[in-house]
Structure formats: C-alpha cells, structure tokens
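User: Quick one: structure for sequence A, then sequence B.

Assistant: Sequence A:
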Amino acid sequence: IYIIAHSMGNRPATMALANLLEKRPELLARFKQVILAAPDINAEVFREQIAPRLASLGLPVTLYASKNDKAIRASYQFAGWDRIGDIRGDIVGIPGLDFIDASNVTMNFLGHDYVASNRALLTDIATMIKTGGRAKDRGGLRGKPSPAPRHWEFP
C-alpha cells in the first residue's frame, strides 16, 4: 500500500496511519511508502508530533514541498502558523524522512498542483513506487548540501 496525501489531507492521513499502525503493528509490512505532497500541516506539530511517530514505525516517508506554493502561503496568512510545506526559509532535516524541494519544477499560477501535473515529479514518484528506492537512490534529484544531504531538490 502506498499512501499519497495532498495539502490539508496530510494531517488526517498521517495521524490515522500512525494511530492504525501503533494499534495494529502487524499491518506495517503492507505499507511501502507514504508520500506527503504540498503538506498544509503546522510545521511545529509535524516536527514534534507527527514525524517522530512515523519515524518510530520505520515507514519510508517522502515529503514534497515548494517555496512557490501560494496556497500554502495563504494558509499561513490565515492561520498564522508555519506550514511544513512552505519552505521559503531554511529547510530543517527530519530524521527518517526524505524532504524534497520541488521549487524548481514547473507549476501552475497557484503553485499547488505540482505533484499531480509536473512530469519530473510524477517520474520521481513512479520510480519510487517501482523500485522502492529512497531519494538518495533515485536519479533526477540532487542532495543539498552536498555531500551529506539534509534534503533533496530537483535541478
């Protein structure tokens, strides 16, 4: 099973998955990857509550974010909390999670649909699903900073 969540759907998807697998650990082997696309989640809540729970399960997680996502910025302006999918500032590495900066891919005017509409990103997701490889093993991404990356980006 591959979980792909987008925008505001990331929070209930990640919380439900963590709850399920903590209660039913025998199901963990069925899940292959969690993909968090343009996550509209409070950054502090994600770092302190959600990411540690997912990491403790050992489930591979890939997060795609962009500094060009206007919908995520609007969410920040409305709620007043930093969003994990808004990377206009420094990217903070999160253990056990492949953080991918998608700012360099072509987007629509809102910049929020890049996961579903950009060929390079769709190819990356397809490669991830086909090979099971983490970001370091997939072509088309470069580590930042190099040689010990804290996150990845599309060239």
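Sequence B:
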Amino acid sequence: RGGKGQGAAGFRGQDFNAELHLSLRDAAQTHKQILTVNGKQVRITIPAGVADGQVIKLKGYGAEGVNGGPAGDLYITFVIAEDPVFKRLGDDLYVDVEVDLYTAVLGGDKVVDTLDGKVKLKIKPETQNGTKVRLKGKGFPVYKKEGQFGDLIVTYSVKIPTNLTEAQKELFRQLQSMN
C-alpha cells in the first residue's frame, strides 16, 4: 500500500552564526582563514575589501539536516577593528599627517604611509592647517572588484613649534612686525 508522502519528511539543518574579527590591514587583503564552527574546521577565503558588520553566507556549513534534509547555512559577520593610523569610510581611507611649521610655510616633501607602502608628497608653500589632499587609488580595495581601490585622503595638521629659544621668538617678532 505505502503511497506517496508516507516516509518521514527531511528537515533542513539549523543555521549557524559566527563572528570573525579582523584588523583593517587583514580586511584589505584577500586571504584564507580557518574557522572552527561547532567543532568543525571550515576553511574560507576572505575577499579583500570586506566591511565592518558585513555578513557572508556559506551554504551548507550549518547543522546537518534531519532525515536526509539539507544542511543549514553558516553566516559569518565581520568585525573590523579600528586602525591606529587609518580611518575607513566606504572604500576611502583617511589619515592625518603632521607637518612642521617651516615646511607648511616654505613647502617641501613629506613621506606618508599608505596601506601598501610609503609615498612622497610635495607640500606647496603656504599650506594651511587642515588642507586635504586626495591620493587616487591609494585607499581600500573595492569588495570583489579586482584591482579597484578607493582613495586615500590626507589631512595636513600643521605643528606649531614649542620650546622656542629667545632668539627664535625674536625672529618671529621681527616677522610679525613686517606684516
């Protein structure tokens, strides 16, 4: 007799959730990582450019199905720590760079850190405090877009000299009297 629908139904397995903590610099590079979820090791490739709070789904990495049902899924939420140097907004990175008063007034060169090394920037004479410079393509990698990057926005912070000698102060007074 045993017609259709007599067997026990298969149920989908439970979904699992995991958090993966990364540094900003790790999130900027495609890399492999092994996660342990419910005692099982899961090897995943993390694409460059993942964002804080972003969730990716790994199909079938959740709990086993019941009665031959499909396995659940694994949802991984990325938690990206603040970086001591760079601030990230979307695919752009922001960095503050200190410039001494003399370079700000007279111009000069300044070596600035980027995510993938250093660049030498020309500082124009009479650069004001808070001046911003955009370095195209020196920001964060764009998620799943190979070879595309945001920008690096550099903000100059002019440092006023302290502990001046009396002779240095006198030179400043002379400059002041010329204006």
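The CA atoms of residues 167 and 173 lie 10 Å apart. The helical segments are 24-27, 101-106, 166-178.

User: Thanks, that's what I needed.
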